[in-house]
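Contributing new records

If you add data, match the layout below exactly. Sequence lines come first and carry their own label; structure lines follow with theirs. Keep one chain per record. Anything else will be rejected by the validation script.
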Amino acid sequence: MRTTTLIPCRIATTGITVLGAAGIATAALTGTAHAAPQTAKPAHQAAAKAAAKPAKADDKADKKAEKAEKKDAGKKAEDYPDNLDGWIREAMSIMKKHGIPGSYDGIKRNIIRESGGDPNAVNDWDINAQKGIPSKGLLQVIQPTFDQYHVKGTADKLTDPVANIVAACNYAADRYGTMDNVDSAY
């Protein structure tokens, strides 16, 4: 049995076919993924390579975020309205600082499809819910995915609208290149 470990990182790809929400969530929970078979490497080589990649990506993202914070230090913090438009705009500001791609339209399109704009939406019927891990929030994220793709500086709460958007977009960037490439349940 092959085990796949999902490692948070950002990749640039386009034109990827999107899987259904249950398929993605099941892949995240069971450790299986719909991907081309890869040649097996000795465990110590694969572990060393996997450990090096996130550290480099995290260092680069942290440096970029620090640079953006210094640049914005003298500016007044922008006030965002406590509504869908404000949550998306605030999330995009955070995403920009961390190099996470995604457009306003792509994010909003997915939010409307997934939750109708309700930050407290809970899916209590799919395979994840049956396993006790329901999808929640604006972009219907399960807790293990939120924990893995959560971005520092956002609330550590799955149903926080901004944290949910940023974590989901970080996941979509890793899996599909950007949330803009997601055209159905993911």
